[in-house]
Amino acid sequence: MTTFAELGVPAEIVKVLAADGKSEAFPIQTDTLPATLDGGDVLGRGRTGSGKTLAFSIPLVAGLAELDVDRVPGAPTGLILAPTRELATQIATAVEPLAKAVGLTVTTIFGGVKQARQEQALGRGVDIVVACPGRLEDLMQQRIVRLDNVEITVIDEADHMADLGFLPGVTRILAATPADGQRMLFSATLDRGVDKLAKRFLDNPTMHSVDEATSPVEAMTHHVFEIEHADKNAMVAELASGTGRRILFTRTKHQARKLAKKLTSDGIPAVDLHGNLSQPQRDRNLKAFGEGGVRVLVATDVAARGVHVDAIELVVHVDPPAEHKAYLHRSGRTARAGNAGDVVTLCLPDQRRDVAGLLGKAAIKVKPVRVRPSSAEVDALVGARAERVEPTPEPARPAAQSRQGAGGGRGRGGANGARRRSGGPRDAQSSRGSGQRGSSQRGSGQRSSGQGSSSQRGSGQARGGQPRGQQGSNTQSRGQQRGGGRVRHQAARTA
């Protein structure tokens, strides 16, 4: 195994990773970090749980720390795009300790919550934005955020963005970032327009593929339990009753809500996660599940990507998904980061043909087993059973309970006026012209290849003891002749 220090990760970041028990890199990190730390564009392909988040978080933070550009209100220098609110939140959680170690700030931008807090964070000035495309475009149109200062952009789960119809918005967002910026795109597959996105916006990228989307995970064991309709409820309760964390996937939001409520009333505390919940409700339920107070999460496919909770030992497909990629992403919530896990698909008599076709497309070879809730195969997966908890009746609410609305409108005042730019369509060139930067130069010298350059960056040089925003002649630059002949801008930029 290769350590992060050996890969040239800066010492401040290595220290943070080590404090979190991470010293050796996963294969996708080993493969991509030499190129990304050197400022190159990368197209990374790997299955869920392969370590992609750190693979792009480390070079993003390290690169921005080296550039040491001014923090400008409403104009971040790092951008990560993610398809779901849950994934954006979890990415930000992973990035924040790395960023803090080198003096950078992080915020999230997504829909489903009020805009005011996001607006305030941008107004104060933030270095890295982790965003979902929809809300980010809204803020761009309101001129609350502009992307012409972005030095490094990451697109995560690009294939899932294609599934959700986000690619046109992603294209517009990328077109608003500087054409010479560093870009990293990570995706499990390259179909449905993802390849076009990569060809248009990545400059001579190095491509790294660590396992195809259908590659089986060695530490993941798959089971197909053929059951009768009459046994399904008892089987679900039995599989939910173990002491370890488990996720139960249903096809609809109504089923998820109903099953979580039923399990809880039966003494198996469970929370639900689906599209009908508000963002605060989602956050609260995920926190209850992730911190161990609740061991069962009942979810729709909204949790199939972007939900990472340590030590999920079992995934149950209560309702088999409609297509094989959903099966793989659901199943990928377990057996992550080298841990083992089990996946159970419950198959009713009329679902046998569909389940067989689903598993065939997913390249999963497993022999179905006919079981009852009391079968030995089920007992082996349940292991130790959690003690059932008697439900506590909720106290009755006063009849005349009043609700206080969250009044007040948004007031951007002069801050927004200072950020407002003249209209007109924004493309890569017009964006650059309107958002000039501080005296940092990204092109003053050729970056040397090899370990010597990496170790220099790890030593924490280039900030010169100056406060953020002060830039003198000793400021280091990531200026580099990029592989396809594109040269980062040499001209000095003033804020």
UniProtKB/TrEMBL annotation:
PROSITE patterns per record: HELICASE_ATP_BIND_1 (PS51192), HELICASE_CTER (PS51194)
InterPro entries (UniProt xref): DEAD/DEAH_box_helicase_dom, DEAD/DEAH_RhlB, DEAD_box_RNA_helicase, Helicase_ATP-bd, Helicase_C-like, P-loop_NTPase
Sequence ranges assigned to domain Helicase C-terminal in this UniProt record: 231-382
Comp. bias regions, Gly residues: 405-416
Stretch list, region Disordered: 383-495
Biased composition (Basic residues): 485-495
Family the entry assigns: Belongs to the DEAD box helicase family.
Name assigned to this protein: Putative ATP-dependent RNA helicase
